[in-house]
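=== RUN LOG ===
request id: a7f3
mode: sequence -> structure
chains: 1
length: 159
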Amino acid sequence: MRHGKKVNHLGRKTAHRKAMLANMACSLIEHKRINTTVAKAKALKQFVEPLVTKSKEDTTHNRRIVFSRLRDKYAVTELFRDVAAKVGDRPGGYTRIIKLGNRLGDNADMAMIELVDYNELYNAGKPAKKKARRRGGKGKKAETAPAAPATETANSEEE
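=== RESULT ===
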């Protein structure tokens, strides 16, 4: 029985699988997109997304946790500096898997996995999001209050 065993072993022993996912994650962070099989892409998505979530808060503890999984200090630096700044406002879903068809040699299902915010083709159609503003009374009062004394002083100088 396989109750509660959700990990896709990908035909590898534990150490080999962890090393492969760490290497693929470093490549994904460095190149922003990689081509691989669909099964490996799905496993990589589960591996990378918690690391990107950790990178949004830059603390020593989070850096050490991410480094223990990636084992590449250049990838950790890139993740915390560039990638985290780009995905800071996104609540999740940092990667996208696009199926590419079958591989010529062995007919394996291929896919491209990429970081969502780095694809200009998909993001070109969407307008830049403006910050949502509340329609409270404070905003209007703050804008009109400084304007009124400025006009009074201008009128008093003319007289």
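=== NOTES ===
The chain has a mean pLDDT of 87.
The two ends are 93 Å apart (CA to CA).
=== END ===
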